[in-house]
Amino acid sequence: MPKLTAMIIVRNEADRYLGRCLESLLTFVDNIIITDDASEDDTPELCLSYPRVKLYRQPRSMFLTDEAKLRRELWHYTLENKPEWILAIDADEFLEESSLKEIPYLLRQRNFKAIGFRLFDCWGSEDFFRVDGLWNPWLRGFSTYLVKYQPELESAWPSLKFHCGRLPLAYRQLIHYESAIRIKHLGWANPANITAKYERAIRQDPANKYMGHEHYESILWPSEKIETSKWREHLSI
Amino acid sequence: MAKKVALLTTNFFHPKSERIITGGAERYQVDFCRLLRDMGFNVEVWQMGDNWTKEFDGIKIHGVPANKTEYHTFPELNMAFYENAMAFDYSVYFILSLAYPLVHEKSIGISHGVYWDWPGFDTTTGKQEIKQEWLRRMGISLAGPQKLVSVDTNTINYFNATLPSFYNKWEYIPNYVDTDLFCPHEEDLTKDKIRILFPRRMVPVRGINETMRAAEILTEKYPAIEFHFCGRGHDDTIEMLMSQWAKKQERCYYYWKPFEMMPEIYQMADIVLIPSRSTEGTSLAALESMACGKPVVAGMAGGLSDLVLDGYNGYLIKPSVENLVSSIEELIKDSKKRRLMGERGREIAISFNKKRWDERWAKIIADVFR
To answer: Which one has a higher pLDDT value, B22 or A91?
Structure first.
């Protein structure tokens, strides 16, 4: 079976989903490479409590000032660990467990060197995902999360401070297989975090360069204006 | 030096995106290019596209900006290919109508089945003079290549009845299945459940709407049955709607799986549905289900009657809701019949073994490409 390495950037995740995320990942990946972006809580200790996790620590936080650099560094740390396939994931994202049986088939197939998934944003709870406007997971396409490492490809990132993507540009341009496995994103699941996340989003993108004004505003919409759909786990096949 | 083969198709890649349309014909193309490569040829592919070159499975695919269609033929693409592939020794017209109006000297045309039995074809080509012009062009398409290969007998019969002078050009090479990869599982994997599988793209001509209705009726009536819809939609909205519909039903599931996982999906089924209304050849999915030892309920379309003998290894029906429900019910009620029909299907599938396909094709390629 080809080796699968997950890579994650974390910052102050100890009280969020990191433990669950690592537990879930370790059921199907071989090892996890983590860059800790100068956490001020017990995140590093939590990471180190898992033997198959390798942790690299940043002395100063870069996520909000130079995300591309942080991503590049994580990529290089990952390469130091001789990966075959790389899963670029966040600490609040989960591949649905009922479909994990598909992963070995994806790693063994030879036609595609990149695999895309649809991301479902859980909203207000872990049981519902958002479906209005640009939140609709079905209509916004697939994103490449899983790639086969290819030494001949360039490791360049776009020179953007934010929203610079998780993988080197060359990997994002590969022809990818679109998998039916859904990624469950819990970043918006806790209502208590939504306002802070909104504020961070507009601070990072005051000119609405990455997303339209209306989409940012939709983060704060009252619940009656928001459309959600119940998350139902697929039958395990 | 290796001889060079140029293959012309319409859309292996979507002309404007990275999305790959992975239907049966696309899988056929990959396998066919592999066979040519194994025989020592260099192969490149042309299709519609905006002046790009991509690679898939080690084969270069060139997109040429010639998107115009007339009477369901592609003269602009055909001519662009004729000029672009001039340096190649041999040509393959992967869809018959692509051979209109002009072909390279040593070439083969392939039919993947009748597609003009689709009602939409009649709405665009229905007027008598338009139909006549389409048929005239098809006649020219058939006249050019040295050999015509069809995946089913239905296409050959249609043309022999319509344009009989090409009788001797036709070769029947039905579709194929790797019977080592697709094989029955020793255990009964569903046990007390009965799992019904629709392993098709979610499009009307494949009978999706009739099958959804049949699923609603049958799941309500029989608590032990499950319906599995396994395949892509043509666009995101269809996949969203399928998922929403399945979520509302009891024991109906929607997903798709990578090709490598499909043997397992067939093995876990008890009954497989291929209820196409039209545009069928000798469906790879039907052959794969049969190779896995499953009874097949198939529509009377295209070459499905080359694979399914009604009442022997499944049922061949007009895929109305009523017919689907009654033929599935026959199989739900009788596990012995399911098993017997599955065993017979496996036996039939063995004669469609991939090795035979390779040999038949190798012979024709050697005849024409010399």
So the answer is: A91
